[in-house]
Amino acid sequence: MRLPFTLLIDPVPADSLQQDFSDTFHEMESTAPALRVGELSTQRGDGIFETLAVVDGHPQEVEPHISRLRNSARICELPVPNAEQWRAAIAYAVSRIPQRGEIALKFVLSRGVEHGPAPTAWLHAAAASDFTAVRANGVRVITLDRGYPRGAAEKAPWLLMGAKTLSYAVNMAAIREAHRRGADDTIFLTTDGFVMEGPTSSVVLRINGEYVTPAPSGAILHGTTQQSMFDYLRAQGSRVEYRDVTLKELRHADAAWLVSSVRLAVSVVALDGEPFPADQALTDALNAYLLGRTA
Hints:
By secondary structure, the chain is of the alpha+beta class. It has two domains: about 5-125, D-amino Acid Aminotransferase, Chain A, domain 1; about 130-290, D-amino Acid Aminotransferase, subunit A, domain 2 (D-amino Acid Aminotransferase, Chain A, domain 2, Alpha-Beta Barrel), CATH 3.20.10.10. About 30% of the residues lie in helices and about 25% in strands. The protein has nine helices and 14 strands. α2 (about 60-75) crosses α3. It is globular, with a radius of gyration of 19 Å. The model has no long low-confidence stretch (mean pLDDT about 95).
């Protein structure tokens, strides 16, 4: 059992009745050449991906991640992944990596080689970064204009805003801008002042005792960890809601979190340079719950 671990996958059609996929999996040395020069994932970012956490040998949120991968494929007009094959690939990888600690497992589906016959797919597992400090101390956040009004995704579906694509240059640029301004992370806004999401996270607010996240849409991904957070909050008797959220509501919220699959839940402790109220006790409870999941 070793890290990093890389597995190339020969994708089968979504409607294939195949049940044994072992002959479609090919282990690779992570330092060995694996992609061709004409690969469109590297040339154009033309592909989709998901990243899930594996905690002490338990892959988390497998079904929501596979479902979102399939939805991204439909939006991008890629061959829809065979869910059984991807479940098998994840299980195969988990059986070959360390069974202790936190691991980030990323799986990718690309349009393949230009003018080639088939898509390219692979899975890569690596040790997760140590997020202990940021989970305990929170993040300083700035708001940035995403450059689109609310409703842009529905009016211009070719923007692929509801897909989790490999084209993450804008997202990474937003995080660099946050660092230039002395912050840690970003919350995107529409041009007309509605809260969207972070570059790599979902946004959850507590407003008058209710937990609110921007409604998933063609422009906002339905966060897998946000769904788990809402499951926990409902079980505790709290009210949760999906709806439009304005910048004014964000600024006056009782507390706010950025949530994602590997970093998990982190409190917002500053917003646009001003201190922001945080509920660290709840953050600790959320992360204990999220780390303790076995599925």
